[in-house]
C-alpha cells in the first residue's frame, strides 16, 4: 500500500509541474503587473481545470510506459465519472478527488489491457484502443456507486477542510510539521494536493469559483495564503542557515570537500524552494535534526499566521515566487524579517546539536565513511548509471525502476546487496530502505538523467564498464581495431521480415537512440549468432543478448518489445556469458506462441551499439531466410 501511495505521489508531479506556468500567467496579467486580463484568464485555464489535468497526469504516471493512451483513458474516465455522478446528485463536486480517482483507474486499467487481443473482426478495438473503452465502462459503474456514496464523504471532507482552514495557529502548525515529516516516504505531495487545490472556496466578483490555497491566493482571495507563507522563511533562510551550521561544524580537513556541495544546495533552496537535497543530506545521518527541522517548520508556519502574513507560490517558496507574488502578498517585508530570525534559530540549534551530540552530518562522518567521492566527467550519466547499478547490486537485483523529482524508486530483490557507502560516494544524498523490497536513492535534481541512463543499460543488458576512470573502478578496454563489417561477415540470425529500424514500434529504437541497426519480424523460433565473436552480455531475463565481433563491433539482439517484464518466460538460453560463437551458433530459443499475446510486439531490433564514425547500410529488406548474408555492411 505504501508503495502504491508513493506511486500516486510521484504521478502528481506531472500536473504540479504545470503550476509555475499557470502562476506566472495569472500574476503577469493582474492589474498591478501588465494589466492584461486575457493573460490572467489563460493562466486560470490551467488552474480551473486541475481536476482533469490530475486525471491525465496520474494515469500517465501510473502506466508502465508513460503512455498517452493511459492519459486519454484518465481524461475520459474523469468526464464519465463526474457527469455520471452529478446526474444522480447535482450537488456532487469531487474537485481534484474526481481527477485522482479517474487517474488511478485509467493508469491501472491501461497496465492490464494495453496489449489485449481480440478476434480479427474486433481487432481494431484491441490493444491500447480498448483502454478508454473499458475505462469508461468501469467509471460508469463507479459513478453510479459514488452518486449515492459520495455526498456524505463530500460533507465529511468539507468539514475536515473547514476545520483545518479555521483552526488558526494550530491548523497551519500541524500542516507544516506533517508536510516535512511525510517527505521521507514521499507522501507529502498527496497531502499538499488536497490543501493546495481542493480545500476552501473563493468566488470572484465576476462569479468565477476557485478551490484550494494556491488557486485562491493567486486570484485575490483575502483569506488565502496563510497555509503557504510560513514555508518561505524555512526554504529561503532556515535550511540555507542549516547548511552554514553543518559547514562550520565540519572537520577542518573536510570543509573544502563539503563546502561546495552545501553552498550549491543552499542556494538552490533559497532561489527555487527545492529543499530535498538539503533535507536528505542530514535526514538519515542525523534523524534528530530532521525532527527538529519539522518542528521548526511548524513554528514558522504558526509565527507567520500570528503576524497576519499571507503569501503564496506557484511552484515552491523560494526567492523567485517571493518576488513574483510580492505585491499580491500581505506583509511580505515582515515575512522576510521572520525569515532572518528563523535563519538565526536554525543556525544556532543545528550547530549546537551537531557539536553537543557529535552528529554525523556532512563533513563529520567517521574515518571509514570519509572516502573520496567518485568523480565522473560532468554530464556522463552513462558512467553514473553503471556505477549506480553496481552499487545497487547489479541488474539482477533491480526488479523495477522509477523516479520522482529527486529520488530513484526501485523494487529490489535483496537489500543486503545494496552498497550504501558507494551510493553516497557517487553523490547520493541518502538511501532509504522502505521495506524488504522497496528502495529509494536520493540523487538530486539530475535524477531523471541518471534513471534514463540506467534504463537504457538495463534494456540492452549492458554490464560493460564505461570508458572513464573512477576511484576503485577500472575502465574497460576498448577495441582499437577498425570497426568494419563486410556483407559476408554478417548472417541473418533468424528467418523473418527484415525492416528499417525506423519501423520498430518503439521510439527508443526507432529514433536510433540505442545505435544504428535494423529489425526483424521473426517467423522462426531460434536466434543464431550472426557473426564470429563472443557473447558479452546475456540479460538476466533472457530477452536480449549482446555479442562482440573480432573487430570490436558490439551487437545487441533485443527480442521483442517490453519483453523484459516476462522475466524469462518463453525464452530458453543456449549460450552463456563469455562463450565464443561462430555464425550459426544457436543463442536463444523463443516460444513466440506463448509470449506473443503478452507483449506489444515481437519485432526484434538488432542494434550495433558502439558505432561512432562508421555508418551502417541495410542492403536487403522483406522476407529473408535464416543465415542469409549480404544483409548489412558497416564502413567509415
From TrEMBL:
One of its GO terms (cellular component) is plasma membrane. GO terms for molecular function: kinase activity; N-acetylglucosamine transmembrane transporter activity; protein-N(PI)-phosphohistidine-sugar phosphotransferase activity; protein-phosphocysteine-sugar phosphotransferase activity. It is a multi-pass membrane protein. Residues 1-366 form the PTS EIIC type-1 domain. Residues 506-610 form the PTS EIIA type-1 domain. Gene3D superfamilies: Glucose Permease (Domain IIA), Glucose permease domain IIB. One of its GO terms (biological process) is phosphoenolpyruvate-dependent sugar phosphotransferase system. It holds the Pfam family PTS_EIIB. Keywords: Cell membrane, Kinase, Membrane, Phosphotransferase system, Sugar transport, Transferase, Transmembrane, Transmembrane helix, Transport. It is found in: Cell membrane. SUPFAM superfamilies: Duplicated hybrid motif, Glucose permease domain IIB. This is PTS N-acetyl glucosamine transporter subunits IIABC. It comes from Pontibacillus chungwhensis BH030062.
Amino acid at each position: 500500500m505504501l508503495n502504491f501511495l508513493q506511486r500516486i505521489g510521484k504521478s502528481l508531479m506531472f500536473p504540479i509541474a504545470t503550476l509555475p506556468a499557470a502562476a506566472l500567467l495569472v500574476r503577469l496579467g493582474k492589474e498591478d503587473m501588465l494589466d492584461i486580463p486575457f493573460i490572467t484568464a489563460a493562466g486560470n485555464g490551467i488552474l480551473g481545470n486541475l481536476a482533469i489535468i490530475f486525471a491525465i497526469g496520474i494515469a500517465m504516471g501510473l502506466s508502465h510506459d508513460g503512455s498517452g493512451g493511459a492519459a486519454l483513458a484518465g481524461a475520459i474516465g474523469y468526464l464519465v465519472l463526474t457527469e455520471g455522478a452529478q446526474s444522480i446528485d447535482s450537488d456532487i463536486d469531487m474537485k481534484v478527488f474526481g481527477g485522482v480517482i479517474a487517474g488511478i483507474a485509467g493508469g491501472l486499467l491501461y497496465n492490464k489491457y494495453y496489449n489485449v487481443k481480440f478476434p480479427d473482426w474486433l481487432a481494431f478495438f484491441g490493444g491500447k484502443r480498448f483502454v478508454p473503452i473499458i475505462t469508461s465502462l468501469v467509471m460508469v459503474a463507479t459513478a453510479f456507486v459514488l452518486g449515492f456514496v459520495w455526498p456524505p464523504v463530500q460533507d465529511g471532507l468539507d468539514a475536515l477542510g473547514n476545520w483545518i482552514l479555521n483552526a488558526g495557529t494550530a491548523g497551519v502548525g500541524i500542516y507544516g510539521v506533517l508536510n516535512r515529516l511525510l517527505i521521507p516516504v514521499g507522501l507529502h505531495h498527496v497531502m499538499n494536493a488536497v490543501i493546495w487545490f481542493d480545500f476552501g472556496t473563493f468566488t470572484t466578483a465576476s462569479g468565477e469559483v476557485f478551490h484550494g490555497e494556491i488557486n485562491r491566493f493567486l486570484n485575490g482571495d483575502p483569506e488565502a495564503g496563510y497555509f503557504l507563507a510560513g514555508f518561505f522563511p524555512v526554504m529561503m533562510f532556515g535550511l540555507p542557515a542549516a547548511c552554514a551550521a553543518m559547514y562550520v561544524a565540519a572537520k577542518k580537513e573536510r570543509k573544502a570537500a563539503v563546502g561546495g556541495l552545501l553552498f550549491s544546495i543552499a542556494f538552490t533552496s533559497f532561489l527555487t524552494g527545492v529543499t530535498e537535497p538539503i533535507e536528505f543530506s542530514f535526514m538519515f545521518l542525523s534523524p534528530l535534526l530532521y525532527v527538529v527541522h519539522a518542528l521548526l517548520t511548524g513554528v514558522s508556519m504558526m509565527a507567520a499566521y500570528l503576524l497576519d502574513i499571507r503569501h503564496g507560490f506557484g511552484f515552491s517558496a523560494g526567492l523567485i515566487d517571493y518576488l513574483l507574488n510580492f505585491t499580491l502578498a500581505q506583509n511580505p517585508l515582515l515575512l522576510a524579517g521572520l525569515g532572518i530570525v528563523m535563519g538565526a534559530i536554525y543556525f544556532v540549534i543545528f550547530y549546537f546539536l551537531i557539536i553537543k551530540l557529535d552528529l554525523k552530518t556532512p563533513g563529520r562522518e567517521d574515518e571509514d565513511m570519509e572516502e573520496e567521492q567518485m568523480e565522473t566527467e560532468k554530464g556522463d550519466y552513462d558512467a553514473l548509471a553503471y556505477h549506480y547499478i553496481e552499487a545497487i547490486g547489479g541488474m539482477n537485483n533491480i526488479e523495477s525502476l522509477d523516479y520522482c523529482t529527486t529520488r530513484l524508486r526501485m523494487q529490489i530483490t535483496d537489500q543486503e546487496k545494496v552498497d550504501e557507502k558507494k551510493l553516497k560516494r557517487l553523490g547520493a544524498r541518502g538511501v532509504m530502505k522502505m521495506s524488504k523490497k522497496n528502495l529509494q536513492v536520493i540523487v538530486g535534481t539530475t535524477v531523471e538523467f541518471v534513471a534514463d541512463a540506467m534504463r537504457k543499460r538495463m534494456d540492452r543488458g549492458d554490464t560493460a564498464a564505461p570508458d572513464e576512470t573512477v576511484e576503485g573502478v577500472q575502465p574497460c578496454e576498448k577495441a582499437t581495431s577498425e570497426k568494419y563489417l563486410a556483407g559476408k561477415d554478417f548472417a541473418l540470425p533468424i528467418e523473418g521480415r527484415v525492416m528499417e529500424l525506423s519501423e520498430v514500434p518503439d521510439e527508443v529504437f526507432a529514433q536510433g537512440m540505442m545505435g544504428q541497426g535494423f529489425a526483424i519480424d521473426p517467423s522462426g523460433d531460434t536466434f543464431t549468432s550472426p557473426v564470429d565473436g563472443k557473447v558479452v552480455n546475456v540479460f538476466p531475463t533472457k530477452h536480449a543478448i549482446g555479442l562482440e565481433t573480432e573487430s570490436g563491433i558490439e551487437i545487441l539482439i533485443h527480442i521483442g518489445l517490453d519483453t523484459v517484464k516476462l522475466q524469462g518466460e518463453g525464452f530458453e538460453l543456449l549460450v552463456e556469458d563469455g562463450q565464443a560463437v561462430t555464425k550459426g551458433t544457436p543463442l536463444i530459443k523463443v516460444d513466440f506462441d506463448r509470449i506473443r499475446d503478452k507483449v506489444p510486439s515481437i519485432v526484434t531490433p538488432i542494434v550495433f551499439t558502439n558505432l561512432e564514425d562508421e555508418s551502417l547500410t541495410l542492403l536487403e529488406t522483406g522476407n529473408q531466410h535464416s543465415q542469409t548474408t549480404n544483409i548489412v555492411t558497416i564502413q567509415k
